[in-house]
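Form 7-S
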Amino acid sequence: MSQDRPYSHMLEMLQEAGLRPTRQRLALGRLLFEGEDCHLTAEQLHGLAQQNGISVSLATVYNTLHQFTAAGLLREVVVAPGRSYFDTNTREHHHFFNEGTGELADIDGQAIVLKDLPAAPDGMRVARVDVVVRLEPSAAE
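Output:
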């Protein structure tokens, strides 16, 4: 990436996804996509933005995450009603969810085999299957 254009990768990524490259999308996109794959809530991303001197409202963070998801740049992982993580890894995979810590971790897509998936209702097709394996501490023995 050129030092003259630090946002060039994000600019290209947003344009390819059909999203207008606003200042907020560029800044949040850099936090999400420059580095290793991650799982973040909107609140976590908002806090990270503030730590990095990015002035953006929580509502804008939510809107941007949903726009990135609709454009195929992120996957939303719902772990409970009203509690979602946004995953930068859009490849086929599943998740472990630690109910005690709130940590989400990837499971390779081939590690879980689904058998006898029911037929989709008329006029519908299965878009994808997400498995969330919930973890809790084992009882002390």
